[in-house]
Amino acid sequence: MNKKDNIVRAAVKIFSEKGIEKTKISDIVKEAGVAQGTFYLYFPSKLSLMPAIAEIMVEKTLTIIKGNVQDDVSFSTKIEQIIDSIFMVTRDYNELQALIYAGLASTEHLKEWEAVYNPFYVWVSDLLREAQSEGVIRESIHVERTAKIMIGLIESAAEQIYLYDSDKDDQARIQKIEVNQFVKHALGVKD
Amino acid sequence: MNKKDNIVRAAVKIFSEKGIEKTKISDIVKEAGVAQGTFYLYFPSKLSLMPAIAEIMVEKTLTIIKGNVQDDVSFSTKIEQIIDSIFMVTRDYNELQALIYAGLASTEHLKEWEAVYNPFYVWVSDLLREAQSEGVIRESIHVERTAKIMIGLIESAAEQIYLYDSDKDDQARIQKIEVNQFVKHALGVKD
Amino acid sequence: MNKKDNIVRAAVKIFSEKGIEKTKISDIVKEAGVAQGTFYLYFPSKLSLMPAIAEIMVEKTLTIIKGNVQDDVSFSTKIEQIIDSIFMVTRDYNELQALIYAGLASTEHLKEWEAVYNPFYVWVSDLLREAQSEGVIRESIHVERTAKIMIGLIESAAEQIYLYDSDKDDQARIQKIEVNQFVKHALGVKD
Amino acid sequence: MNKKDNIVRAAVKIFSEKGIEKTKISDIVKEAGVAQGTFYLYFPSKLSLMPAIAEIMVEKTLTIIKGNVQDDVSFSTKIEQIIDSIFMVTRDYNELQALIYAGLASTEHLKEWEAVYNPFYVWVSDLLREAQSEGVIRESIHVERTAKIMIGLIESAAEQIYLYDSDKDDQARIQKIEVNQFVKHALGVKD
DNA sequence: TATGAATGAGGATTCATTCAT
DNA sequence: TATGAATGAATCCTCATTCAT
């Protein structure tokens, strides 16, 4: 029953329910089951929660991806599974992602943010490197850079769905197909 | 000396300086040189500024793109010019873009946002459609959807540079090359 | 119905009733009949009231002294009337005096404090100078400096009464006599 | 390494640095190097420190005075030495004196305060009584009362210097001369 | 004795919004 | 249209105090 983690967990929940601005510290501590003052033992302000939340988000994303992407399938299938996973996380946490992004952008925690996001980049980089060494994708690709671009692309495509469109699930299905095509051609994936 | 525009201009400035949450209406009106009450003659709330700001951003972006993308060059070159333009806008306004994104995400102005962003999507869609009809890119591409994905991809790639990396200009140069390759392969551009 | 003055007047009242620490801003604004936020239009904090309050205190003191000290009496009598007056003010506001002193001491308003207290010093200096020119007090006295010392002495003596002693009025009577003797001898007053 | 004394010493330091109101118990215990809860083993509240602090101040003052006032000099010289001593203590601890004064004024510890200050009064009373029996000062003086007045006068004069004036040391020199004259005439000192 | 994490009532402070001018 | 002083509900944050260890 670690109180700090409790607070972060509660904040994730409340933030994604009502947004940052409408969330009161008192909402968070109530959800976390700790006293008002306890919050300030661990965090000087609402926004200082962001790096901790971002960390959790990335963990969740990686966990989901690792759970969804199978070892014994083709690279092409893995891409589909990655896209599926990211769309899934975005569906569940899209508001929170936007808020983290904004929260980080309006603070000075960017360095931390990069550190936090790094495991995700590394994981995708490794996947691309492997595919490259097996000759399944273009030789000319810079894996680390492409990993970032690809993740950015998929996340941005997923967010578009959950921000703008109406019949989310149906739109998501179509958007995923398009992203899939887009990425595979971009990578020069050989089925 | 149109007061409404003054307010929007002031808001753009202050928002990108201190973020949305930390910006008070009083900061905006002071910067705009109008009275506190005047704000409410034009905008019912702080967040209702967002669509107006987004509109300005999109206008700026489109103006820059239209200024940079030449008529009499190959589609491949146009892609490069679009990437260049978006990186340029992002370099100058990356903080604001994050804020608009967040501001829109945390409000109910999404419909307006989509409307505002639409001209940009349409412009790129038209470009893609033309390229498709000329057989320069893949037949299988859904132009509207791909336009959105592509814009999302390029913007996200550009933001990565201006958010995280250190030697911005150099990194931007490399990132643009990679994005260019990525997009062209994705689209199946035939040089 | 000047709101700023209202706030100061209310603060004087509440402070002397319940002390600084126990006084809430909300008490002051309630007494002043203004809104909570109005306080902050004029004063950034509770302690920033102090110079304004000190000013009022000095005004009150001077008013009482000028009311009590007659023109057509001997210098010796005037001293007695001054002592009487200061003991009177101290009796009514001794807590406030201590608080102002503390409030000023714990802030950076000392310069202001001196400026505020100055009229009082000047008034007594003038009295001493007149007495000196009439040969009623010692030639060797430095009037400005002695004015300050004398005021300090009388106030400190008065405060001793209202801080420590029990039968205030009786003690005050005796203490005033002693102070009177003390001061007159110090000044070398010739009856 | 007596913890109680440590706390008092730390409180003296922090109080004179930041004032009573702005001093938190947590500041004091941090400075004292003890735990938060330890404070409450020795003192029921912040203000209950005051008598202990006052005691230290009076001890210091008496020590300095007893060290400076010589046995084998005239009463007149002793007065000068007392004035010197009080100015010295005030120079070093003037902020603290104001704070003790305020702290005591705003509490119910006045009885203790009087008890604590008493040795000082007694010491000066004895001196005056001796001088009186030797016929060196006025017969009519009430020694206990005059001791208080005199101490109050000198302290108040000293505080004026260290509160308001700029060239402290020079001003102090002049002020001391004036106080000396003032007191000696008041007492009717015969050289 | 000693600790220090946890508490939560209490009060300071903010700032979007109104409205008389 | 334009003003800006005034509002006061909303919420942040502090910090003296407690108590299980």
From TrEMBL, chains A, B, C, D:
<dbReference type="InterPro" id="IPR036271">
    <property type="entry name" value="Tet_transcr_reg_TetR-rel_C_sf"/>
</dbReference>
<dbReference type="Pfam" id="PF17934">
    <property type="entry name" value="TetR_C_26"/>
</dbReference>
<protein>
    <submittedName>
        <fullName>TetR family transcriptional regulator</fullName>
    </submittedName>
</protein>
<feature type="DNA-binding region" description="H-T-H motif">
    <location>
        <begin position="24"/>
        <end position="43"/>
    </location>
</feature>
<keyword id="KW-0238">DNA-binding</keyword>
<feature type="domain" description="HTH tetR-type">
    <location>
        <begin position="1"/>
        <end position="61"/>
    </location>
</feature>
<dbReference type="InterPro" id="IPR041603">
    <property type="entry name" value="YvdT_C"/>
</dbReference>
<dbReference type="InterPro" id="IPR001647">
    <property type="entry name" value="HTH_TetR"/>
</dbReference>
<dbReference type="Pfam" id="PF00440">
    <property type="entry name" value="TetR_N"/>
</dbReference>
<dbReference type="InterPro" id="IPR050624">
    <property type="entry name" value="HTH-type_Tx_Regulator"/>
</dbReference>
<dbReference type="InterPro" id="IPR009057">
    <property type="entry name" value="Homeodomain-like_sf"/>
</dbReference>
